[in-house]
Structure formats: structure tokens, C-alpha cells
Amino acid sequence: MSTIERAEVFVASPGRTFVTLRITTSDGVTGLGDATLNGRELAVASYLRDHLVPLLVGRDPARVEDIWQYLYRGAYWRRGPVTMTAISAVDTALWDIKGKTAGLPVYQLLGGRSRDGVLAYSHASGTDVPALLDDVQRYLDLGYRAVRAQAAVPDVGGTYGVRKGAIYEPAATALPEEQPWDTPSYLSFAPTYLEAVRDRFGFGFHLLHDVHHRLTPLEAAQFGKRVEDCRLFWMEDPTPAENQEAFRLIRQHTTTPIAVGEALTSVWDVQHLITEQLVDYVRTTVVHAGGITHLRRIFDLAALYQVRTGSHGATDLSPVSLAANVHLDLAVPNFGIQEYMGHAPETAEVFHGGVTFADGMLHPAEEPGLGVEYDERAAERFPYQARYLPVARRLDGSVHDW
Ligand code: GCO
Ligand code: MG
User: Fold this and answer.
1) SS3 of residue 339 by DSSP
2) What is the average per-residue pLDDT within 17-44?
């Protein structure tokens, strides 16, 4: 029997920080898992190195479900982003190994293709409305059939989602940057630029918008109602998801579809949202919601309630978990859309292979496993650099949800 011989944790910052797990079997097969938790990376690296790696050595890598149950139930302490990201990395690496051992791409192990490709959306943004419109044009020219639009609120500055460099990267400073936030200014401005996008480009593509947890339930209801004529694909995270009853109030007032879940980490965290049909899209991912094994369970529950998938795919999801997500997206019946921001050029020096983009769709690699390799040597050129996500403060100085 093949056994897990070693499991190594790599922390490197090629363009941004990634934590990567590599499991090697006694047969010399390797599998990769992403363990990146933006701004809290070293906590997961320690969880893996200090607490999970010693439990893995000697086990049968083929027993993917059993290892998931062993790590989850065996921790006693349940859920939470650090635990679930660490378990995700192990699970993803084991699926990679299973694919390589079987000689099949992972999506084949999940039941094969349910579709020809995976619809992807990317991020257009601008420091003002003309710049946003230019950026939407750029994404349409690149072949995207779905575009997220965000613009900086005039006179407030620091609005979520507005790109400074070539790629939107919010975790950019050694200590958290403090950004101002003003809800009334956002509420009066954001609908106008979404309308400007529809006025200029029409309705022949999907338009998305991320509110990024900034509104109260009633404000979110007002916003959703106000933008109904824009026919958004979704409004994302309109209000923080700790209080899930809040979505019922939003629902009672607007037919703008709702997407939630990028910061949630287990089926129990989304159970109420799904079974009460409080959201239309669930945004949990392979990397933060327990790997392929657990994310598939979430997606299956969602399918029963006509909730579709819309997995998170920001730059802080490494090419490994993005690939794993796209394998799953290709297979599940209730796929909706996949976020795809791409990565900095340095990231591609370390992670080779992965998904490809063509005509608005993502495609996984056809090699056995996930189709991504980690270049350890190249990673040494990019030592770990601490980077934090920003913190938002209202104009009176009090902390707001970033
Ligand atoms: C998105 C997200 C990201 C997150 C980031 C946090 O919709 O892509 O909201 O931009 O803020 O992934 O680490
Ligand atoms: Mg988001």
C-alpha cells in the first residue's frame, strides 16, 4: 500500500503571499493544496506544520473522505477559517494525488463534465465613471461575458474594489491601511455608475457588483430595489453574513439576486442561507470551505434549493485552489459562475500550469490531477512578506466592515 511519506508547507510571496502544502507518497506521487488565508497566513502554516502533518505521515492517501473526517472530527474544535483552510489544503492535495494515480484529471473523478467550460467574471474598476467605462470595455474586448463593476466614491477615497496597479490587490501594506467609508455617499453614487455601464454597453453581458459587507439590511434592500433595472447578475455580500435573518428582509424588498459566502467555511455556515432560500448564489471555495470533498457537499445541498454556485476567485486564491474549483465547477449540475481575477506575473513563475481562459470561459488542465506544479526553487526568490487587508473607518472615525 502506498502511504503518505511527507507533507511540506511552503510560504512565499510571489506577487502576494501563498501558503502551499505538498504531500508526497511512498510511490513518489505528489499532490498540492492551497492553504492561503489572506492576512492570517502564518496561522494556517503553523496549524498544518505543527498539528496536521504529524497526523498524516503513514496514512493511506487514497482514503480522502476518511482523512477529512479524521481531521475535522478529530480536532474537536470545529469550523473556523484557520481549521477549515488547513483541512482544505490536505483534501485538495489528496484529490490531486488520486487524479495522478488514476491517470485522470480531477473533474473526471467527480463525474465528468456537466458543461463545456466554466463561465468566468472579472473585475472592472475606475477611480471615476469614465475610467470604469473604459475598463468595462477592456474586459469585453478580452472576451468576458460577465464583468464586475466598482468605482471610487467621489470625495471619500479608498472605496473597496478599485484597482491601483495592473491587478486589484487589497492586501498591499505591511500593516493594515485605514480607508474611509461613507454609506450615504456610496448609496447615492453606486447605482448611477451601474446605470452608466448599462446605458453605454447594453444588456448583452452579465453585470455584477460587490457591496463587500458594507450595508445594513434595510440599506441593502434600498440598494437592490434601486438597481433592479440594471438587471444585475448579483449583488454580492450586501450585508455581513453573521446575522443571516437579515437576508430575509432584503429579499422581501427586491428581486436583485444575492450572492454570499466567500468568508464562510462550512456547510453549517451556509445551511440556513440555502435551505431558507435567502441567497441565489453560494460563494464558498475549495480553499476556505474544506476542500473539494466538503465544497461538493455544500453545492449538493444548494442544488436542492435552486441555489447556484459562484465561487470566490480573488488573487488570494492560489492557482492550485483556483484549478481545484474549476474542476468542481465543470462537474456540478448547479454551477452558476466563477470569479477569475488572474494573478501577478511573479505568481506564474512559481505555480506552473492551471486553468486557461478563452472566450469568457475557464478550462482546467487535461493532465492527471489538478494540473498545477509548484516550483520550489523559484519560490525561494520570493520570501514571505507580511501584508494585511485594509480596515475601514466611517467619517466619524469609528470602525466599519471592510
Ligand atoms: C471578491 C472579494 C475579495 C476579498 C479578498 C479578501 O469578491 O473577490 O471580496 O476581493 O476582499 O479576497 O482576501
Ligand atoms: Mg467579494
Assistant:
1) strand
2) 98
